[in-house]
Design brief:
29% of the residues lie in helices and 24% in strands. With 384 residues, the chain is α/β, with parallel strands linked by helices.
Length: 384
């Protein structure tokens, strides 16, 4: 059954725009909290997935922390009301001003990705008379079998410290006077829908913890990142991701030590399904072998299809369900051949002025929008 959008409201708003189902977001957050209740687990929202202030305030209300990758995200998180004591700051290229911003607000942890970064954070913390809390990001060399642009945990990726170099990095962190080493951090990729990569991650973490136990080095936290995928193909059947299977994987396979806490950094799985890009049909064009539906939304509004070859369910929400259908390529107006949302899409017979929904666009949609071709950024609206 297709999701029922408030079409009368949509007719009042200029397109394209993002529409967010806040009830679904609340349901998703409630399910996360239900799965982690009673366990030594802390969940941080990866704000890079969607930084819309209305979305952020709902996540704050549900008690999650936040995972950050820039100084701008620190500022947005503070404005939304996130507790600095629940902020973790990741990323391979933290600049001095961004590190200082985190230090000034006493954030919970910097996820550090190199020995030079450890040394810079130590120096900047020392200048402020502070101790910086850090976790070392480990590259576990695990292939999550996702698109090559969103894999992060193999030896060829730029992220983290290779396992064979980890002992040296840990030793260095323990010796630097203005650092407090809290633990180890991992993240193997994104849009992972099979649990095997997470099981492999647990096994890698278990081995590392055994190694450091033997050397009398103990960590107060382990951070396994995020990466849980969503159902892009049938969003109405699976509007809430399978958090039970995800968290149960770590409950069964990861051997936490006494008083050790497990941290997660979930982004896409929290916000993707609640967001939809709504566009209007400008033209229906026919060439020799193709029919094109040309939308007023393009890759500037939703870049995932052009960047990752991703596919979002495309629905003509103006047409009656029982009308005749046809096959179209659904494209945008941008002067780039990659500005294509879908090829050979079976849709109800589509006409100029129809409204089209591109589903599961709440993650890496609005937040990656650009003004290329000098186009305005899309607006956002929310369910009541």
């Amino acid at each position: 059954m297709m999701y029922r959008f408030p079409l009368e409201e949509f007719k009042q708003w200029p397109t394209p725009f993002y529409y967010y189902d806040m009830g679904l977001l609340s349901k998703t957050l409630n399910e996360i909290n239900r799965q982690v209740k009673g366990y030594p687990y802390d969940v941080h929202y990866a704000i890079k997935a969607n930084g819309n202030p209305v979305i952020l305030k709902e996540i704050v209300k549900n008690g999650l922390g936040v995972d950050l990758v820039s100084g701008g995200e620190i500022k947005a998180s503070l404005a939304a009301g996130f507790d600095p004591g629940k902020m973790v700051y990741s990323g391979v290229g933290k600049t001095d001003w961004e590190i200082n911003l985190g230090l000034d607000h006493d954030i919970f942890c910097f996820n550090v990705e190199s020995v030079p970064e450890l040394e810079v954070i130590n120096e900047l913390a020392g200048r402020r008379g502070k101790t910086a809390h850090v976790a070392i990001r480990v590259n576990p060399d695990i292939d999550a079998h996702t698109h090559r642009y969103i894999t992060t945990g193999t030896a060829e990726d730029k992220f983290g410290i290779n396992i064979e170099m980890l002992a040296t990095a840990v030793d260095r962190a323990l010796k630097l006077p203005h650092l407090h080493l809290r633990g180890l951090h991992f993240h193997v990729g994104s849009q992972i829908t099979q649990m095997k990569p997470f099981v492999m991650l647990c096994e890698s973490v278990n081995g590392l913890l055994d190694y450091f136990d033997r050397h009398d080095i103990h960590f107060e936290l382990i951070n396994v990142g995020g990466g849980l995928g969503i159902d892009y193909d049938t969003p109405d059947i699976n509007p809430v991701p399978d958090f039970q299977h995800f968290f149960d994987t770590f409950k069964r396979h990861l051997r936490l030590r006494r008083n050790q806490r497990l941290h997660f950094e979930l982004g896409r799985s929290i916000v993707a399904q609640c967001g939809t890009l709504i566009a209007r049909v400008i033209y229906v064009k026919e060439n020799r072998n193709k029919k094109f539906v040309i939308l007023d939304a393009g890759m500037t509004d939703l870049i995932r299809p052009a960047l990752y070859q991703a596919h979002h369910v495309i629905q003509n929400i103006s047409a009656a369900v029982d009308t005749a259908s046809d096959v179209y390529d659904v494209v945008g107006p941008i002067c780039e051949s990659s500005d294509v949302f879908g090829t050979d899409e079976k849709l109800p017979v589509t006409r100029r002025g129809d409204l089209v929904a591109l589903r599961s666009a709440g993650a890496y949609g609005e937040t990656m929008a650009s003004c290329y071709n000098m186009r305005p950024l899309p607006k956002s609206h929310f369910s009541r």
